[in-house]
Amino acid sequence: MIVELGAFALVLALVLSVLQTVMATAGRMRRSPVLAGAAIGASIAAALAVAVAFGALIHAFAVSDFSVANVAANSHTDKPMLYKVAAAWGSHEGSLVLWCLVLTVFGAALARARNLPFGLKASAIATQGLLGVLFLAFAVFTSNPFERLNPAPFQGASLNPLLQDPALAFHPPLLYCGYVGFSVCFSLAVAALIEGRANASFWPAWGRWVRPWALASWAFLTVGITLGAFWAYYELGWGGWWFWDPVENASFMPWLAGAALLHSAVVTERRGALAGWTTFLALLAFTFSMLGAFLVRSGVLTSVHAFAVDPERGLMLLAILGVTAGAAFALFAWRAPRLTGGGQFAPVSREGALVLNNLFLTAACATVLLGTLYPLILEAMNGATISVGPPYFALTFVPLMAVAFLILPAGPLLAWKRGDLKGVGQRLIIGAGLALLVALAGWLAFEPRKALSAAGIGLGGWLVLGALAEIAERIRLFRVSPGESLRRARGLPLGAWGTVLAHAGLGVFVLGAVVETGYRVEAARTVAVGETVTAGRYSVRLDGVRIVEGPNYLAEQGRLTVSLRSGGAPRVVTAERRFFPAGGQTTTEVGLDFRGLDDVYVVLGERGQSEAGAPAWSVRVWWNPWARLIFLGPAIMALAGVLSLLDRRLRLGVGKRKAAT
Fold first, then answer.
1. How far apart are CA 122 and CA 29, in angstroms?
2. How far apart are CA 453 and CA 446, in angstroms?
3. Is residue 376 exposed (0-12), middle (13-18) or buried (19+ Cβ within 10 Å)?
4. Confidence (pTM)
């Protein structure tokens, strides 16, 4: 009965989204508050209906109702409850319901937003409703998660063991809040284009309205991507955290577009400039999100991250992408000539710095897009199969971002409209000197032959020091009394602290990524009990291997002692090879020894024999220096996004700016 209720709720949500679209459109055309209010009610009801459907799907997984095809294909009675619940979004059908849930919840939040002009709000609600219609229709007619099996199997097939992990339980919901959250920016951009406002006073207010949604989506996406990278790091057993996998790129492209949108929206809000470019980025960010959904679900990519290998459903997703993005960009092309005006500014100004920032971010995004799609395009044209991996991105993406990072600290120190480059240079001279010292220290501390890696360390230090210089300038540190500086620090808006933390977190990430990638040490040996493997500063001894039984797997568990070669207390870690009888699959569980900023990463391989004929196991060890910073940096950036969202100036309920009246 609950399954049927869920199926009915999903169809009801589709009907309500249709009503939302129709009534919002009619309310806009007739200037009718009654019809517009009905559209708001329909959007909230649609979100509630999808929530009921999603709850029914989770219930079916929790009670192991194998009469539901989706449950039978992705669950098992022996699975822990956490992974039974997570399996609800671990398949194509379930993840699509999650997508629709986030889409309708964000749509309901948009409908409840205050201080949006009547016409703009009605058009945005209609656009959001139309997106709901398309994705809910796709779920109902081609990807129904409540389809029954008759007869029902006694046991399920279980979820991919690689996905049975706590990080992967929370990764998709957070990622989708970022992915689908950009739909509100998309809808507000389409609404602004439909309204066709040519007056300059409209765009500062519009920039302020779109910025909170972009910021929330970007923060969610930052956490989601970081969780996915951390899962890949400790679950896949290959010692790395990012491999430029096409599905990884699918989430990275909207993140880059969203970062560009955030910076561009600031210029639009403050100066009324770049209105057309900000609108374009708002359309682009959600378009990349839909492109990611197509890549993950179409079967055109082979990846552990992929949800489906169904070309027919992939074709329908491609049609949705073509209709929505095509119509939106056609509207943009029609209206773009009128999106002019705004405040004038000199090339050397904060606006100029933000424009330069956008150029580098969008160019970097274009390189990721090309590297992701080029193999697919080439294969479709002549059947040739190639792979585009880290070397391509190291030659294209990395230099672009390095130049962007080099100029980033100067931007916040420049004045609006016209800046003093010489004065900014004087403020940053100490930071530049310290960054050079950081680079020199990295060069001497690790390996003198790796000069580029040392330069990367200096670049990360430059970003952190630049953020500190920005906050020092805001509170006039060393230029007024300490008490006055403290008073100024307390009086700074949360958005200012968010900007500083975001740039500092980026620097922390760069430090971790450069050191871990450039100075990682790997070693592998087949060892018997009592023998050691040495990697860099650390040695790892295999103390023993035993068989353990988990809730739904059997495992060989190795007990290993990690020691610092120069001395210090040894630590014990465990690493496992797990076998899942339900799916007949084997996975690895790595052993991680956290040593300050470093990781000692241990993988237990297959059993064999030593030269003396004794039982032995393949053991791989990585010393990953400063790996903690790779995940700490994005966490700081996400915290920066939350702080900025708490800033009173970004709340949609605050009174309008005078320019919008």
1. 9
2. 10
3. middle
4. 0.92
